Amino acid sequence: MKRLVTLTALLLLALAASVQLKAQLKTNKKNAEAQKEVEALERQRFEAQVKKDYAFLERVFADDLVYTHSNGKQNGKPDYIQSIKDGKSVYDKIDVEALNVRAYNNGQAAVVNGTITITQPNKPDGTPNIAHIKYVVVQVKDKQKGWQVVLWQSQKQPDAKS
């Protein structure tokens, strides 16, 4: 009788472990898919900022976006998009140097950190205006709207020659 109870307990433990493993594999797969989606969207968003694709930016920025520039200035979604339209935020080129995406909550949220180089119009003295930026982005997946940026935080890095 003791053997039967022990065997039954072991079988139940094995079954529970199997169910847990299956759930974990499913979560891992959803997170991996989310990581690929968000990485592609990050690159597309940078391209949209350069090309001034306002429709794309309207779609990928959440209505409650908090966008903190490297100088500490903060914008919401309407203000940031308007700053691009008004020429206050100008991007000739954005090069992605490093990009790391971590997905959470069964692929429903993602934290991105990376390094970019932004080329802007030349300074008044004609010298290149290049900024090396480290940044963090938080994106969430909305059922109707898809992935949306809810937070951008950046920090300017010193030039290599500094």
From TrEMBL:
Keyword Signal appears in the UniProt entry: yes
InterPro entries according to UniProt: DUF4440, NTF2-like_dom_sf
Coiled coil: 15-51
Gene3D superfamilies: 3.10.450.50
Pfam families in alphabetical order: DUF4440 (PF14534)
The DUF4440 domain, residue ranges: 38-149
Keywords: Coiled coil, Signal
Domain of life, source organism: Bacteria
Signal peptide, first to last residue: 1-23
Record bears the keyword Coiled coil: yes
Designated name of the protein: DUF4440 domain-containing protein
Organism expressing this protein natively: Hymenobacter koreensis
